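User: Teach me something about this protein's shape.
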Amino acid sequence: MLNFDFYNPTRIFFGKDRLDSIDKQTPKDASVLITYGGGSAKKSGLIDKIKAVLGKRKIYEFGGIEPNPRYETLMKAVEIVRAEKIDFIIAAGGGSVIDGTKFIALAAYYKQDPGDLLKYGLMPIPLTVVDKAVSFGTVLTLPATGSEMNNGAVISYQHGKFAVFSELSFPKFSILDPGLTFTLPKIQVANGVVDAFVHTVEQYITFPADGRLQDRFAEGILRTLIEIGQVTVNEPQNYDARANHVWAATLALNGLIGAGVPQDWATHMIGHELTAMLAIDHGQTLAIILPAMLAVRRDKKRAKLLQYAERVWQITQGGEDEKIDQAIVKTREFFESLGIKTRLSEYGVGADKISAIVEQLKAHGMTALSETRDLTLEISRKILEKAM
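Assistant: First, the predicted structure itself:
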């Protein structure tokens, strides 16, 4: 097992009717900004419920944070935080709202150009650069990204998507009430299942590091998502299925299963370019890239792919290559069973777009990806060709 540091200060309030927890977790004298997305949180009455719990605190609102939150939009919220001396933020929404709120919280106290915060990639922003952030909590309405219990965010800026990490961007608390997700469209639920699944795979199908407990945790998350995936998509009021979906998505990316083991993230990096260039949903890009990634990288990932085939998909018959083939097919079939298309051509993307996608990877420095840092632009091209 590799050396690791593990730190997660987020307090979770899980289950039905947990909004009252906001009152005890938010300073009594705080000026609070509530952030949200396209308006569903407002229309559903969630924002009014949060305001009622906050009582007499001074409250401001900022809506309109997009899926794949844009830097320019978030900077408008930063201006409000600075002008009104906001000292606590509550993000009501899914991963995009929470990601955007993390950036707002970090940028508010940064004295230089906040665009600088986007240049650190997967490395945490040093505390010598940002040593203070606005405290925030979250009310989750879409289970997918795990942003409610980690310190990472992905921000859209110009023609790319950029990762932001900081020790200061963990939520102080997160409300995880599965009932708040019941009204989601099917495609968003399906995207969320895929996102959680691929988050887990990126930390699991790499190379053996004798992280036995981490592997078992990861396999449990994957098997749970397979068991409840179609149910949570097709039965939106099924509390038990949705509760398992919510908790699986949170555990998939709260740092636990990735501690002490190698991590890949190439599927995400290539997927981000598809979203930025072609406006394909994040979850859909992952469903497109992962099966192709596993096929192209099968030799590099051979040992863990066999473990995945046997432990997750219960494939015990046949030779090693046959088991790997079956595991990749079952992965694709699982995504498709959720209503997610898994090939670029099904989104109207032709092979003529591949060179432009590869050029964007190059422009964003994504030239040595994967757990072994040997996934070159040429290999990315092969993955994209395989994904057609």
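Now, about its shape. The longest strand covers residues 88-93. The mean pLDDT is 96. If you'd like, I can walk through any region in more detail.
User: That's plenty for now, thanks!
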